[in-house]
Amino acid sequence: MENRGINCGRSLAFKEMREMNSSWRSVLHLGRKLVWPKGHRVPFGQELYFLDRGRVRLTNQNMEGVEKILWYIHEGCVFGETPFFDPMPAESYFSCATGCVSYAFTAENVEEICKDYPHLLINLLCSMSRKLRVLSNQASSLYLDNVLARTCKFLAQHIIPGSDPLTANMGVSKQEMASLLGVHRISLYKILRQQEESGLFGPFSGKTVTILRPEEFFMLARS
Questions:
Q1: Concatenated DSSP letters of 133-181
Q2: ∠ Cα 23 124 31 (to 5°)
Q3: How far apart are CA 120 and CA 115, in angstroms?
Q4: Would you state the pLDDT for residue 15?
Q5: What pTM was estimated for this model as a whole?
Q6: Are residues 99 and 187 in the same domain?
Q7: Does any domain span residue 29?
Q8: Do 72 and 56 contact (CB within 8 A), yes or no?
Q9: How many domains does the chain have?
Q10: Is residue 2, in this structure, part of any structural domain at all?
Q11: Could you give the 3-state DSSP secondary structure of residue 131?
């Protein structure tokens, strides 16, 4: 089933970051290797990070302690750019969704990279632009799209290539998915149950779900 159109506009609202900065592996010798366990909270501001293995989660927290997951970043990506280049108090934080191996770069390291490896600076600007696009589309989707459309946008980014019947692997728990989509978990469970009963989705099995009406599904994902 063709999925043309799920990589543009609000369809990108819940896209996860993968291998956007793989070229930075050529300068890992300049950084400091760090090994973090699952659940570790990453310190902000003093260093720029490259994720070599694992997955980290960016979460925003308000003064009342209410949290909203913004996105997940996978291996091959630089992260922590905003507090590194704009060191203001942050309401967001990165934590390790899995065990992680990362490399930390100081300001001196980054200055050296900019001077001796200018193509990596261009690569960083491109990935930061993609993150800005994703975040702006997420804000638009949270305001303009209903829960079902947001759910389809999220699942469309997690389709298992070549799956027949079409299958999505969420990669996160339903509670994490609800936080990412900006809804209460009970509201998400209700929508998923309704769509199972209507025949859009098959039963959820762990973190995977079968898409039973792909044409309708992709229409919602592109809306």
A1: HHHHHHHHHHHHS-HHHHHHHHHHTTBPTT-SS-EEE--S-HHHHHHHH
A2: 60
A3: 10
A4: 82
A5: 0.86
A6: no
A7: yes
A8: yes
A9: 2
A10: no
A11: helix
Q: What is the DSSP letter of 4?
A: T
Among 112, 142, 172, the domain-final residue is 142
- pLDDT tens digit string along 58-103? 998 877 767 889 889 999 999 999 999 998 777 789 999 999 999 9
Do 135 and 205 belong together in one domain? no
Q: What is the CA angle 119-123-129, rounded to 5?
A: 145
Together in a domain, 34 and 118: yes
* 127 alpha carbon, distance to own chain's centre: 13
Give the domain extent around 102: 15-142
Q: H-helix or E-strand containing 108?
A: helix 107-116
Question: Looking at residue 108, which CATH number applies to its domain?
Answer: 2.60.120.10
Q: Which residues contact 173 (CB under 8 A, 6 or more apart)?
A: 207
157, 118: one domain: no
The answer to whether residues 158 and 207 touch, using CB atoms and an 8 Å cutoff, is: no
Do residues 116 and 132 share a domain? yes
The answer on pLDDT for 175 being more than 80 is: yes
pLDDT tens for residues 141-159? Answer: 989 999 999 999 999 989 9
Which of 142, 157, 190 terminates a domain? The answer is 142
Partners of 69 in the β-ladder: 59
Q: What is the mean pLDDT of residues 122-151?
A: 92
Q: Sort strands 208-210 and 167-169 into parallel, antiparallel or unpaired.
A: antiparallel
Distant-in-sequence, close-in-space partners of 82: CB < 8 Å, separation ≥ 6: 90
CA–CA separation, 194 vs 196, rounded Å? 5
Structure tokens at 184: 């209460």
